[in-house]
Amino acid sequence: MNDNWLADRTRCFDSSGIRKVFDLAAKMSDPINLSIGQPDFDVPEPVKKAAIDAISEGKNGYALTQGIPVLREKLQAKVDAQLGHDDRELFVTSGTSGGLLLAMLVLLNPGDEIIVFDPYFVMYDALAAVAGGKVVYVDTYPDFRIDVERVEAAITERTKAIVFNSPANPTGAVPEADQIRQLAELAARRDLALISDEIYREFCYDGEFVSPAKFNPETIVVDGFSKSHGMPGWRLGFAHGPSAIMQEMVKLQQYSFVCAPHPVQWAGAVAMDVDVSQHVEAYRRKRDMLVEGLADDYEIVKPRGAFYIFPKVPWGSGMEFVEKAIENQLLIIPGNIFSRRDTHFRISYAAEDATIQRGIEVLKKLARMGR
């Protein structure tokens, strides 16, 4: 094969560093795995049964591109009740990542700029590159708060969109409602698309979830079932926003993903009626256990949502620290995978209590190596 066969977009980013840690975990005999960004609880039994029934009943062909009516209409009714917008259309996507990709492809022309907050979910800049866009990073260190003045200063004549994620991966940050309102109003005032990634919305521990769509009715929201119902491998998400944008995203889905997995959509309709609050409470407790266990040895901004903590390394670079952790059987993710800085690391507390406790013990030992 000639290298000239490969499109330039394949050189815009490397394979996910998170996936490399997953591959490493598969080769270790007894790792303390605090790296995986997926729930450690299983899919609820009624949801499993609904998927099995759908398969057994032959619901295995193509679904409507925009989603089966029973799920789409149920989701639309919920969103309408929450937001009450006159022009807010919803369709079912192949995971939240599918929704993000479609949004980027619909919004960005080659050379358009898109604002992303640093630290950020690894997929944002990669998907922007696939669409030909240029990422402009707005720094949120040291407390991971959004400074709207910094955002406005980053806007140029090429700026097309802003990506917002709350609760955030990798930091667990949840901005105050007033910050979210200011950002939403800025996007509206400057005529910019605002993409809100709300996949962790169920995991808010210190207050109610607030969407920027509450303040800006043209906000494009992507969401899904992966985190809330422990079904990341089922690839079921949804997007909603202005009908003109949604219709273009559906058109692209016809020629790419075609549809979200058909039997999984039937399960999603059942999942909407399943109470997941016990898992949210369990993760609140795990967060507190981890923060309290590391407070004496690490500089931590207490996360208010999701299931991640993003501590500052006590010595060395983020990558050096993570390499030493791996030598001690602890799998965590270096912060430079999520950031232009290499000063932090990500811990996922979507794990059993015993695993978290083992991780705390190793991290305390590692912190004291640098003293």
Key traits:
single chain; 371 residues; alpha/beta; Aspartate Aminotransferase, domain 1; Aspartate Aminotransferase, domain 2; 2 domains; seven-stranded mixed sheet; three-stranded antiparallel sheet; 39% helix; 14% strand; globular
- Strand and helix order: HEHHEHEHEHEHEEEHHHEHEEEH
Oligomer: single chain
Tell me the fraction of residues in β-strands, as a range.
5-15%
Give the integer mean of the pLDDT values. 95
Can you describe what's shown?
With 371 residues, the protein is an alpha/beta fold. It folds into 2 domains: 3-43 and 276-369, Aspartate Aminotransferase, domain 1 (Alpha-Beta Complex); 58-271, Aspartate Aminotransferase, domain 2. The protein contains 12 helices and 12 strands. Strand 5 (159-165), helix 7 and strand 6 form a beta-alpha-beta unit. The model has no long low-confidence stretch (mean pLDDT 95).
Summarize the entry for a quick read:
This protein is an alpha/beta fold. It has twelve helices and twelve strands.
How would the blueprint of this fold be written?
Layout: H1 17-27, E1 32-33, H2 45-56, H3 69-83, E2 89-93, H4 95-107, E3 113-118, H5 123-130, E4 134-139, H6 148-154, E5 159-165, H7 177-189, E6 193-197, E7 220-224, E8 237-241, H8 243-254, H9 262-271, H10 277-294, E9 308-309, H11 318-327, E10 330-331, E11 333-334, E12 345-348, H12 353-369
Parallel strand pairs: 1-10, 3-4, 3-5, 5-6, 6-7
Antiparallel strand pairs: 2-8, 7-8, 9-12, 11-12
